[in-house]
Amino acid sequence: MATVVAAGLATALSAGPAHAQTVRPVFGPAGFAGVKLGVSAKAAKAGGKIRLKMAGGPGCSGWDLKAYPTGRDSVGLYISKKRGVAVIFAPKGVKTKEGIGLGSTYKQIKKAYPKVKKAASGYPYVTVPGNPKAYYSFLIGKGKVYEMALGLHTQDCVN
Length: 159
Fold this sequence. Notes:
Keywords: Signal. Residues 1-20 form the signal peptide. This protein is α+β, with helices and mostly antiparallel strands. The protein has one domain (24-152): protein yfey like fold (Sandwich). It has helices at residues 2-14, 16-19, 41-46, 106-112; strands spanning 31-32, 35-36, 50-54, 60-65, 77-80, 84-89, 117-118, 124-128, 131-141, 144-152. The strands form two sheets. The chain has an eight-stranded antiparallel sheet. Strand 5 and strand 6 (84-89) form a beta hairpin. The protein starts with a helix and ends in a 7-residue tail after the last strand. Residues 1-19 have low confidence and may be disordered.
């Protein structure tokens, strides 16, 4: 009997990686995928996790997270010359600590973030729990979030 249990345990342990779930990093509260809000372009580049996609001239430059490349005509984050990493967009499949991600509904946002507000343009936004310098913003279409961003309240890249 002990031999059968030991053999079963050995099989279960050796099968671990094949059955392990992929763990996605949490979106926020200070950054995402090893890139933190507020760090300079130089510091963000030094981390090796981003690549330039759109030069910014005097304003903001557009970058991609190497682990989450975006399609043509889009970027994964903006870096401001004044503010550093200013806005990071959530890739598909990642969620905030509170469980909100692309595909979430406004009702779910309201439940996760009772202090959510609506901007003049109508999109919901909320100060990030645990990071008073940052916000989450949500674009909703057909009842679901199709774009989610983590940004500095002082960012100067997007409106």
